Amino acid sequence: MRNIKKIYVFLLLLVAAGCAERLAECPLPQEAAVSEKIANVPDNAEGGTLIARFDESVIPELEEMANAATLTKSAPVPSIPELDVLFKELGVVSCSRVFPRTEKYEADTRAAGLHRWYVLRFSPEKDLGQAAVALASVAQVTTVQFDNKLRKASDGLSVPFRDGAVPQTKAMVTSEFNDPYLMWQWHYINNADQAVSVTSRAGADVNVAPAWKLTKGDPRVIVAVMDEGVKYTHPDLAGNMWVNPDPDPEMNDVHGYNFVDDGPITWAKEGDSGHGTHVAGTIAAVNGNGIGVCGIAGGSGRGDGVRIMSCQLFSGGNSAGDYKSSQAIWYAANHGASILQCSFGSTAGKFRYDNAFAAANPLEVEAIQYFMNKKNCDALDGGLVFFSAGNDEIAMSGYPGAYRDYISVTAFAPDFLPAYYTNYGPGCNIAAPGGEITGHSGGEKAAVLSTLCREISDSDYGYMQGTSMACPHMSGVAALALSYALATGKHFTRDEFNAMILTSVNDINSFLEDEIKTTGSSIRLMDYYGKMGTGAIDAYKLMMQIEGTPCLSVPVGKLHRAVLTQFFGDGAKDLTYIGVEVPQETAEALGIEGTPRFYDGELQIKCLKPGSGKIKVTAIAGGNREGTDVVMGGMSVTKEFAVVSRAALSSNGGWF
Amino acid sequence: MDMKKISNILVLFLAALLALSCRKDDVKLDRGMPGCWELVSRSGEAVSDFSVYMDFRPDGTFTLYQRLQASVYYSYAGTWGTSDGVLSGSYNDGTPWAASYAYEFSADGAKLSLRTLGTTSEETQVFAYTSLPSEVSDNAIPQVKSFSAIPLL
After folding, report:
1. Residue of chain B whose Cα is closest to the Cα of A591
2. Which of A371-380, A462-471, A603-612 has the lowest mean pLDDT?
3. How far apart are the C-alpha atoms of A89 and A87, rounded to whole Å?
4. According to the model, what pLDDT value does residue A37 have?
């Protein structure tokens, strides 16, 4: 990627040199310096738009310039001569901050350095590449980024729900909710219903039924759906839509905002698919209201579901670029969201390591960092970020999901096998139901059932497939878990919460035999072994982790071998462990000599004294190496737990 | 009814009232093993990462509640007994306790110390008399049921 960019910039410089007469006042610096400043190459970039980060030293002058231009409603006139020449040459009509100044959020925005980002608008006739080189040539400009448009992680295909035959295991879908279509939501409660697929496997779901006994949601938890507009009037969503307590009169942002068109949220334009509405329904369709479907954190029908904020990034076939999508992320952080639900990303393979992605998308990375650092929920220090892994059927996650700080979600089908389209391998962190719309005996019933837009699909409900559908399962489970943490007065750091998520899983590797699965296409199952992330997310297991850290009970005087399932989930045996930390205090309390180690997925520990103490174990969640600047890899998760050594240990696990 | 009878009744009533009001303390002193005990320390170290309640019933049965290797309480049922200052027992699934214990009560009867016998390492645990929290008893998941299954013929 970096090489492509260098070649691209070199060619641009050659062209720019030929145009030296036109840009005579803008002497070109060394190629390397300019190349370093231009972050990306144009890829479906917004015309007449460039994003630039300026040196802090010129920010006061730029802010003065922007204020004057706003007041006089005229083109900006920079006081910096070099910039002034360039603005005139490009015909810049506006130069404003990407993240607008607002009294309420200015301090945080400045602290994060986001006030240094500006967006320049000029004639779309101008060559974007040459404009970028010219802008990067200005000494006070530190970064230039093309405003590339987003790509949805879905083909947008949906099949409307048609009421008809009841599933054969209807009676087995036990829930207190009266939503009639819950029986078809195998992705929540999978009882191996043959009407969904003859290959359905019980337990291939997010195991939300027992979790619902503990909590059903909490309106203090807000999930920002970065997607097509959410149909906020949908009868099964309206009750759980976020309502802005202080809407901006100019934006009229009651339930969120349409960042593509700079206006009201839309969902039924030509080219829309209902994708955002489907995603929203999985997270928080209203439960217990006697209609339609259930949402994972949709409450009980008494106004107690988590809230959906619609940050519209796709509209009628058009999509937001880096500028507007970053602004949307900043908006979500400022307006109380604690979960960022993102079913979009680049094609897998476009970036192959974290540095390449971060270097090409500095604005987006900084905006997400701002979101991650924002504390909007009393149960959590920061924000959680989920991306779909992508549907390219490629052995690596697409970015941004592959980035080491974000959770990338792969997809499985009702047979508990990888969905044919899912990406897998490095960068993938966890799996969730994404369904398969073709290739099963139940047809579209093997896909994910959620809310849709009647204007598009002629039905309020329907089926979709994709990692786009898997990702909101993860967001919904996380939202439910935050609700439970609030209810129980628990509080976690972002790292602790991510670690709990990635270790609350059921094993899926054991189903991956040396066979070919043929549904939408043919895949060799062994290729996916250990590459779908840590396992399939289990809502109930996550609730249990929130309740408290369980202990490892070991006998005194014997070498004890333990698979750390209760700490790292069902996939514990297959994880790559990279560290065991035993504090001196613990070593003394338990009589541990030397450092315990791992062999064949088992912790080997020997305690010479009865007692208890804490140890820390670090593993890689997703793949066998940690993601770094130059390596695409998994997320490092550290679990701290108590080791309780016993002089006498009953064989049935009883204390006495 | 003459005054003497009335005063006798009053004395009896007051005595009964006094006896009832003192019952709590008296029972503590004379209670012995039956009742619910919560594990509070091991080898002098306070217990904080896990939780154990033991409910000894006078009929020789017990229910053990523990939150140790899981985030929820599991319950175990069985029988117990004492002999010559030694506490022993077994679970209803036939598993004997991993150790027998020498036991000792504190002077006020509010604490119970159990010292393992016959193990390579000695371990002393201290339990405090308590009432079993309903959220523990109501939500515990049975590991060993409270009665043995009787096969149907």
Report:
1. B121
2. A603-612
3. 5
4. 95
Range scoring the smallest mean pLDDT among A167-171, A181-185, A198-202, A220-224 = A167-171
Q: Considering only CA atoms, which of A512, A507, A533 is closest in space to residue A523?
A: A512
* Inter-chain CB proximity A652 and B144 less than 8 Å: yes
- What is the tens place of the pLDDT at every residue in A380-413? 999 999 999 999 999 999 999 999 999 999 999 9
A 546-575 near B (Cβ less than 8 A): 546-553, 556-557, 566
Return the amino acid letter for A113: G
Identify the residue among B33, B48, B50, B135 best suited for mutation to test binding to A, counting A beta carbons within 10 A and taking the highest. Answer: B50
Give A-chain residues touching B42 at CB under 8 angstroms: 610-612
Q: Give the percent of chain A with pLDDT over 70.
A: 93
Contact of B40 with B46, CB cutoff 8 Å:
yes
Q: What is the pLDDT of residue A206?
A: 96
The chain B residue lying nearest A647, using CA atoms, is B121
> Given this model, what pLDDT does residue B16 score?
52
Write the single-letter amino acid at B77.
A
Specify the long-range contacts of residues A371-376, CB closer than 8 Å, at least 24 apart.
A371/A329, A371/A330, A371/A332, A371/A333, A371/A337, A371/A340, A372/A405, A372/A494, A373/A112, A374/A108, A374/A333, A374/A334, A376/A222, A376/A333, A376/A336, A376/A337, A376/A338
B45/A609 Cβ within 8 A: no
Tell me whether residues B72 and A547 touch, CB distance under 8 A.
Answer: yes
- Does B123 sit within 8 Å of A646, measured CB to CB? yes
Q: What is the SS3 assignment for A52-69? A: EEECHHHHHHHHHHHHHH
Give mean pLDDT, residues A306-332: 96
pLDDT of residue A4 exceeding 60: no
8 Å CB contact of A551 and B50: yes
Is A422 strand, coil or helix? coil
This complex has an ipTM of 0.78
Distance, first Cα to last Cα, chain A: 62
Query: A22 CB contacts (<8 Å, ≥6 apart)?
Result: A89
Average pLDDT taken over every residue of chain A: 91
* CA atoms within 13 Å, Cβ hemisphere of A22: 15
pLDDT in tens, A227-238: 999 999 999 999
Q: Which bin fits A274, alpha (ψ -120 to 50), beta or left (φ > 0)?
A: left
Interfacial B residues in 76-95 facing A (CB < 8 Å): 76, 78, 89, 91, 93, 95
Average pLDDT over residues A268-274: 94
